[in-house]
Amino acid sequence: MMSSCKRRLCFLSFLSLLSSLCDCHPHVSRMVGARAASNQTARKVSHIAEEVAGYTDVAKQIIDLAVYGAAQNRSYRRLADFTDTVGNRVSGSQNLEMAIKYMYKAMTQDGLDVHLEPVKIPHWVRGKESAEMISPRVKKLAILGLGSSVGTPPEGIESEVLVVQSFEELKKRSSEAVGKIVVFNQPFVSYGLTVAYRAFGASEAAKVGAVATLIRSITPFSINSPHTGWQDYQDGVKQIPTACITVEDAELMWRMAQRGQKIVVRLTMEAKTLPDADSFNTVAEIKGWQHPEQVVLLSGHLDSWDVGQGAMDDGGGAMISWEALSLIKDLGLRPRRTLRTVLWTGEEQGGVGAQQYFNLHKVNLSNFDLVMESDLGTFTPVALQFTGSDSARKVMEEVVQLLAPINTTKLEAHGEGTDISPWMQAGVPAASLHVADSRYFWFHHSEGDTMTVQNPQDMNLCSALWAVVAYVVADLEKMLDR
Ligand SMILES: *[C@@H]1O[C@H](CO)[C@@H](O)[C@H](O)[C@H]1NC(C)=O
Ligand SMILES: *[C@@H]1O[C@H](CO)[C@@H](O)[C@H](O)[C@H]1NC(C)=O
Ligand SMILES: *[C@@H]1O[C@H](CO)[C@@H](O)[C@H](O)[C@H]1NC(C)=O
Ligand SMILES: *[C@@H]1O[C@H](CO)[C@@H](O)[C@H](O)[C@H]1NC(C)=O
Ligand SMILES: [Zn+2]
């Protein structure tokens, strides 16, 4: 391997030799026992594979603690206590304020360095809402109004329904839409594609003269419960009330319409948008001993929708991002660079807290080594997703080998996440957690998102993966190449 040593690597090995000769930091000698990787031999190794392999023991210690040891089920218990106590926490709500206070206190008591960073977030309130089919028979429709929707007049909107399966069909039948409530019964293809109906359905229907929209929930599986989410009104288009209905009711009305039955629905919604609210991103750190200004960022969002418990979206991601720091601290480890957990606020409204964090901190862009986000559930982990340069990918390929004891040594092509995307676009290496998420959209943004869908062992594995990756990257001699 050394024979293929590129000039750059040789230069680095020279630098690391120098740093090993001048190891003057006070923490080092105290921590040598716990940190196999910081020994003198490891320092001189130029090849990244060998440098990373030096962390095999410490990775095992982290995994043992999280999966089999004293920290077993801790992230699950923390998530249960948090979501049982606070409940759901939509942007602008008192519950969200409570959630931030709860986490500030809990992470401070855990011995981490915690602070809050103020941001402004949207404040939409649902109010009372209901929908009823009046004709051809009377039937209550379960609905959830969509974030940012306007309300109806107090007496509601009662109108005939036009059922369509796609935006194309709506265009073709635009003359039939005037004055009607448009029901979208689009089939679920994937969340990424199908969510366009939730996001843009209201404005598309308003353009052809509809008075309200009811949209089939964006889910591959249903037991007759509606799923909410954010929606976007297009500038210059009339804002009409919009809500999601269940898959079952969307299909019911589609079948009725196919038979030529005339459907009439009454929709009542009190939804309104208040002035932006004050909130905070919650930040907890273990300061790096050598390069405190350089950062590996771990994250999940603390806000949720105003239904269920927000356990899966994204309480789990927030808790494993805290747990990772706890595991590292409990083992007496302290990496070269700062490990920073950020629990975002206002994610569900389009990464609002995260965007303000980026705007404030981008002056230090070059000091962000890796940004990590978990926001697709904390079920059984299957891989780490990564976006970065080829050279950074080579390093990460080695890092995930340390996860062999939990069988998650796969590095996949693309990191993703609403909250880290500004950093990714600016070229910062990014990683996200890929879990066995086939059930994620069953519960997403619905009353079904509760602790009951979480599993302690899965969360142990997610926490271990998160902690190993963050710790090792933060402790390598060199930041990841851009
Ligand atoms: C020091 O690091 C080398 C290279 O990674 C490793 O083989 C060795 O076991 C480590 N020694 C100690 C005492 O941890
Ligand atoms: C962790 O949870 C699993 C599954 O519920 C259970 O079998 C195990 O006893 C728990 N361990 C601890 C330490 O609570
Ligand atoms: C940027 O980094 C410097 C050096 O670590 C730090 O003092 C400063 O507070 C950082 N600025 C922001 C906005 O994070
Ligand atoms: C990893 O896979 C091995 C072999 O299939 C299995 O024995 C072990 O229990 C797995 N470990 C975890 C944490 O899933
Ligand atoms: Zn989320």
From TrEMBL:
SUPFAM superfamilies documented for this protein: Zn-dependent exopeptidases
GO biological processes: peptide catabolic process; proteolysis
CDD domains: M28_Pgcp_like
Keywords tagged on the record: Carboxypeptidase, Endoplasmic reticulum, Glycoprotein, Golgi apparatus, Hydrolase, Lysosome, Metal-binding, Metalloprotease, Protease, Secreted, Signal, Zinc, Zymogen
Intracellular or extracellular location(s): Endoplasmic reticulum; Golgi apparatus; Lysosome; Secreted
Entry-linked PANTHER family: CARBOXYPEPTIDASE Q (PTHR12053:SF3), PROTEASE FAMILY M28 PLASMA GLUTAMATE CARBOXYPEPTIDASE-RELATED (PTHR12053)
Complex formation: Homodimer. The monomeric form is inactive while the homodimer is active.
The family this protein is said to belong to: Belongs to the peptidase M28 family.
Entry protein name: Carboxypeptidase Q
Organism encoding this protein: Cynoglossus semilaevis (Tongue sole)
